[in-house]
Design brief:
Layout: E1 3-8, H1 10-14, H2 21-31, E2 36-42, H3 46-57, E3 62-66, H4 77-85, E4 89-91, H5 93-103, H6 109-112, E5 116-118, E6 122-124, E7 133-136, E8 139-142, H7 146-159, E9 171-178, H8 186-195, E10 200-206, E11 215-222, H9 224-240, E12 245-247
Parallel strand pairs: 1-2, 1-3, 3-8
Antiparallel strand pairs: 4-5, 6-7, 7-8, 9-11, 9-12, 10-11
């Protein structure tokens, strides 16, 4: 099982809003010893959103979705999720109760639309204003507002998935190699990739400048013992080739 993120909204794709969810999702998972497996950005167009959600539901992954669950005409995530699952939308009783508690005598059919979820959904509580999100088939749908979405995400991680916290044997380590080019280290990278198939090698170069030497962040991620062994080889080989290096923070 992997964790995925869907970040929804035309305003993100057009640049009218800057996404903050991806960075925060990575941080929330990292704090709990988990990693984000993938992320996708998609607009509000119904057919495209339905296709993305259909693919996401079929992945078997646990997915956090941000945006598009309001009641205005451009909010189409609830409807697209229902269409992707071939399920009707229905007013969730707990969501109706929360909406009526929030708005009192001012509740109306328009506001109750925010409680229309795909049949069989559960609610995701929203401590900010009481209007819940929803979950179905390991997908968790939150509003696009960070003040609401991030505490809701934490609630899901800590309530539904506490058994996964810090359980995976996984670490990420790297060194920063100065005055080296990737082409000069490809043979080492190829050898490590073959020797450690259960790990993932990564190489992140910088171009440098007049006052800064070019560098490569060279590292491995995977099972702790295997990563440590690979990093020992990397450090020894980089030093043997005469390149200065330092541990990556």
């Amino acid at each position: 099982m992997a964790f995925g993120a869907l970040i929804i909204g035309d305003e993100i794709l057009s640049g009218r809003r800057v996404d903050k969810h991806l960075e925060k999702m990575i941080a929330l998972l990292s704090e709990r010893g988990m990693q984000l497996g993938w992320a996708r950005f998609v607009g509000d167009e119904a057919a495209q959103l339905e296709a993305v959600l259909r693919d996401s539901f079929s992945s078997g992954d646990t997915v956090f979705s941000f945006g598009g669950i309001g009641a205005t005409p451009d909010d189409r995530t609830r409807q697209s999720a229902a269409a992707a699952l071939k399920l009707p939308l229905e007013l969730h009783p707990a969501a109706e109760t929360a909406i009526r508690a929030r708005f009192g005598d001012q509740v109306n059919a328009h506001r109750l639309q925010m409680g229309m979820f795909p049949q069989g959904s559960d609610i995701v509580p929203n401590a900010f204003n009481g209007i819940p999100g929803f979950s179905i088939r390991e997908h968790y749908f939150m509003p696009g507002f960070p003040a609401m979405a991030w505490p809701m995400t934490e609630w899901v991680l800590d309530t539904v998935y506490p058994h996964l916290h810090h359980q995976r044997d996984y670490i990420e380590k790297a060194i920063v190699v100065a005055e080296a080019s990737e082409s000069g280290l490809i043979d080492l990278m190829e050898r490590l990739t073959q020797a450690y198939p259960d790990c993932v090698l990564f190489s992140l170069p910088s171009v440098g400048g007049k006052e800064q030497p070019r560098t490569i962040e060279l590292g491995m991620k995977g099972p702790a013992a295997r990563v440590e062994a690979a990093m020992t080889e990397i450090r020894d080989e980089v030093a043997a080739r005469g390149f200065p290096w330092r541990e990556c923070a």
